[in-house]
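Minimal example, chain plus zinc ion.
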Amino acid sequence: MPELPEVETVMQGLRTRLEGRRITHAEVRRADLRWPFPPNLAQRLAGARVNGFRRRGKYILMRLDGGDSVLIHLGMSGRMILSPARPNAVTAHEHMVMETEEGWHVGFVDPRRFGSVDLIRTDAEDAHKLLTGMGPEPLDAAFSPEALSAALSGKRTPIKAALLDQGIVAGLGNSYVCEALFRAGISPRRLAHTVTGARARRLVPEIKATLREAIAAGGSSLRDYVQTNGELGYFQHAWKVYGREGEPCPTCPDQPACAGIQRITQSGRSTFFCPRTQR
Ligand SMILES: [Zn+2]
């Protein structure tokens, strides 16, 4: 599933080919993904110039010169594919395409159709039902240790679950939460309201660093954020604990007291952690 750093790199890839460009042709090839496509989407896109992009959580907002924003969510399996010309054959599961005046072809491919596309006014982006109530962006200065402590105040859920709550902080997925808690030495089982003071001051920078490192890795491993097959974004990761149950713990490989990376289930999701160092 594309997480915040993937969404950020997909957006940067779109930016390289679409920002400042005019869309000459757009096509929607089915009525819906997770929700119906806006009925007038193709008409609104055709002829519009792309003014710029914004990411909010795991959503991409593509702003058009007419005052519309296209809200894109990649869902579980959504991908953006870029090619310098219209492909000879139709790509499977390519449900929406856009073409620029330079001839670039941008396709939204989504086999499982959990993605979504909506059309909203740029001046009312944050009022959209999917964006309203979203917590601060984790990479913004507004997401500070003090702000996190305040948001967690009174929360008796485990910190792991609280960080996945999009109302507390936007766009964090399971793998990044596991990694940041490990790096901050905080137990995923710790009650959220106790993550204050020094713990919050350790956790917030590790959340930011985990995301920033992934975004940087995506940017450096791809040319203009595009893979050789034309796919946008970055999906390779070197996790310290995520998916590593039973492997030696990176913090305490020679400690008999550490039995290696453990996996537990919290709110139906796997959590990976070191019970010795994460308290
Ligand atoms: Zn350990």
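The mean pLDDT is 94. The beta strands are 23-28, 50-56, 59-64, 68-73, 79-83, 94-100, 105-109, 116-121, 262-266, 269-273.
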